[in-house]
Amino acid sequence: MGKKSKKAILEDQRPKKSYFRMRAFFRMLVFGFAVLGLSVTGIFAYKSFKKNIFAGDKLNNPTKVDWRVTLKTLDNQDESLPEDVYNKIIGLVRKNLGTGNHESLEKVAEIIQAETAFARVHVLKTAYNAVVVSFERRRPVLSVEVAGVRRFVSEDGVVYGVASNQSPLPQILGIFPNRYKNFEYRRDQSLVMNESERTAIKEAIDLYLLGQKSELAMQSVKYEEYRGFLIVLSQEDTEVFIGRAPFEEKMRRLQTILQNLTKKGTKAARIELDYTGKAFVREKKL
User: Fold this and answer.
1) Is this prediction's pTM over 0.70?
2) pLDDT single digits (tens) 38-62
3) Where do the domains of the chain lie, and which CATH numbers do they carry?
4) C-beta separation of 234 from 218 below 8 A
């Protein structure tokens, strides 16, 4: 046999067309599977995102949302919430939150504040079925009767809520002697007061806190429009007319009088300090 020409040898070494076609087919197949995989992944990711973010808002029946509620305090009070208050807040959220849109979050915050008399309430949606209720409580130091109802008085002078008749808080008397109706309350259950009432409440708080600082426990604090404050000391059961603010100097004089009475072995039925530079003491008959 004769030798093949150089051209014939090169043609025999050239890859066949079927090889290139098969290779192109596999490339297209791999590319197709990749596109399909990305498409499926994207669809599932979108559905998951939509479920987590918008599922609470798209429900036609909001009662189907099983709200998870977390409570967070914004104040420095160590006392935990009473169980009945805790359960009330949880119930108010689940009853009134609906789909959890912006309007319903604000509405629920107002409802909780009205029902609990907290100073501040904020409701934040953290997931499609979860909210955080942040609140700031008021700190009651006294109580006062308003139209036959005993109410709390906070340390910043807010009259709010309802105190039981068994409350150990000292009671302020005589602040609202001529008002038996037409009381107005804000959405947070705080009482709307005029300037003279706010001033009297503020002075009563200052007097009470000063008494605590001086270790003079008060059973009650009574306000008389033209004479000022009359306090009843718990231990001695002594009435003390102390007048209007400022009270610091009068409290120092009261402490001195009580110390002198103790040295004498007697107690006072009444002490009057509401006159400038004078003190009248009526001792008890033993």
Assistant:
1) no
2) 665 666 555 555 555 444 444 444 4
3) 62-136 (3.10.20.310), 140-283 (3.40.50.11690)
4) yes
